[in-house]
Specification:
The chain is mainly beta and about 190 residues long. The chain has no helices and 17 strands. The strands form four sheets. Strands 4, 5, 6, 7 and 8 form a five-stranded antiparallel β-sheet that branches. Strands 9, 10, 11, 12 and 13 form a five-stranded antiparallel β-sheet that branches. It is globular.
């Protein structure tokens, strides 16, 4: 299988894409040579293109969300910025839906507290969608996880502290980017 990992050299991080083998890892590409990086994610689209997603501290000291494609034939593609705000864009998760589209969901601090956003890659045009606001209510939403159904919907679960308690939510994001939220873990027991 493929793995994206961060390697620390004592001064900065490097982001590497590797393949697992009997001896451990075989490095396929260095996605980022040197930077302050955070938690990479991987997804493979319906054409076999691998997408590496990560967060990187920019020169302005904010944290941007980036993505880069890779395949055996062409190697690394050109990195693209998925989110660049005056805050941190981090804790990305990624996967491919039943239609082979790559989705990314992450936590953003642009409103001064955690919110959850998503984007999806259109395999026909090769372009990423506009940002989809999954959860931006007051109180803070964070730590997204992502899964998919056989209809092409993305299901994003996340924690929330709305109302000064900790609860779980699940949001369905459809083909058109419409979001429907469902409370799934709500009680006074702070789960």
């Amino acid at each position: 299988g493929l793995v994206a990992y961060l390697e620390w050299n004592g001064k900065s991080d490097a982001l590497r894409l590797a393949r697992t083998n009997a001896d451990g890892f075989e490095t396929l590409a260095t996605v980022v040579k040197s930077a302050v990086l955070h938690a990479p994610a991987l997804a493979v689209d319906d054409k076999g293109m691998t997408w590496v997603i990560w967060s990187e501290t920019a020169e302005d000291q904010t944290v941007d969300l980036k993505a880069c494609s890779w395949n055996e034939k062409n190697g690394l593609g050109k990195p693209v910025t998925l989110a660049d705000t005056d805050a941190a864009e981090a804790f990305a998760v990624a996967g491919a839906d039943s239609k082979g589209r790559v989705w990314v969901s992450w936590q953003s601090f642009r409103a001064g507290e955690g919110d959850v956003y998503a984007r999806v890659l259109d395999p026909k045009s090769g372009k990423w969608s506009k940002e989809i606001a999954v959860a931006t209510q007051k109180g803070g939403d964070w730590a997204p996880s992502i899964a998919f159904d056989n209809k092409g919907n993305a299901w994003i679960a996340y924690d929330s502290s709305r109302g000064n308690e900790f609860n779980l939510y699940l949001a369905r994001v459809d083909d058109e980017g419409k979001v429907k939220e469902f409370p799934i873990g709500h009680s006074d027991k702070y789960e």
